[in-house]
Structures are given as structure tokens and as C-alpha cells.
Amino acid sequence: MDHGDSNSLEAFGQQPRERSGEGRWVTYDELGRIRGIGRESAGKLAQRKRWRRIPGNDGVARVCVPPDWLTPAKEPSGEHSPGHSREPSPKFVLVLSKLHEAITSVTRALERSEARADAAVTRADGLRDAITVLEAKLATAEGERERADQLVDQVEGLHRLLSDAERAARDAEDGWKAVLQHVDALERAGVRAAGRGVLARLRDALRGV
Question: Which residues of the chain have pLDDT under 50?
């Protein structure tokens, strides 16, 4: 069908046949669905391939698409429209999977770090409590040490008093011995018998008899 035929069809209010020997007459929307592209991309494809185009009496233009273009595209055409969502490429899926694995790994590492931080805080709290207990014990020990030092001072004072008492006892004993020696000397000097009895009693008293 040439352009003359198309014009004559439109003149009588008829639509062009959907199929011809050269291809199939389809709208841009139909071409987009067949090729997996948007309507705008379908129009650009028709212009680039210089396919014949006729305006229909319904206001919708149609193009004659060769048979080998009437099958879905096996590979992405690189054309994209907002109304059409393409299947992601294997490479993109792989990259997305690696990214997801990396995020998961980082999240787990962060969770482990948080767990270690919580454990460290708990341990620090325990150590602070232990230090508080030890400080209290140290204060008690220091108080006991001061008291012990006081007791030591008291004991040393008692030892000094004891030494003084022992020294005084020795001095008294030495004095008794001197008196006894003096009495013995008087007895040996030949004191008269009356006096001798008095001196004997004095000596016995000094000796504790």
C-alpha cells in the first residue's frame, strides 16, 4: 500500500489494513508494548528506521513495522521511558547483592562493637564498685593501724614503767643487802649481849623473817 492508497482510505473514513506484505500497521503504543519500550521511544524508533507512517481517521497514527521488529527485544534497547520499567541487568543485580552483603557485614560488626562496648561499661562499673569496697577497707585498716600504733606506744610505756620498777626493786634490794652487811659487821664487832638481841631482831625484820 502506497501513500496514495492511504489517502484514499482516509478519504472514505476507513482504517488501513493491519497487515501488508511489508509488515504490520501498529500504533506507537502497540509498538512500545511489543518491543518493551515507551511510546516516545517507539516514535523515535520508527523515525530512525524510516518506517512508513499514516494518520488514522481515529486520530491515532500508525506505522508499518517489518515482521522482524514485531517480536520482543531480547536485549535492552537502551531506550527508557518513565512509563516502562526494565528488568535489571545481571551485573546490576550482582553489584546490588554485594552492596547488600557489605551493609549486612558492617551492621553485624557494629552490633559486635556495641556489645563489646556494653561489656566494657559493665566491667568498668564492676571495677569501680570493687575500688570503692577496697577504699573502705583501706580506711578501716588505716584506722586500725592508728589504734595499733597507740597500743604499741602504751605497751612501750608500760615496758618503761616496768623497767623503772625493776630498777627501783634492785636498788631497794641493794639497800637491804647493805643494811644486812652493816648489821653483820656490828655483830662481828662484838656488841654487848643486850644490844645484840636488838640488832638480831632488826636483821630478821629486814630479811623478812
Answer: 1-15, 17, 76-85
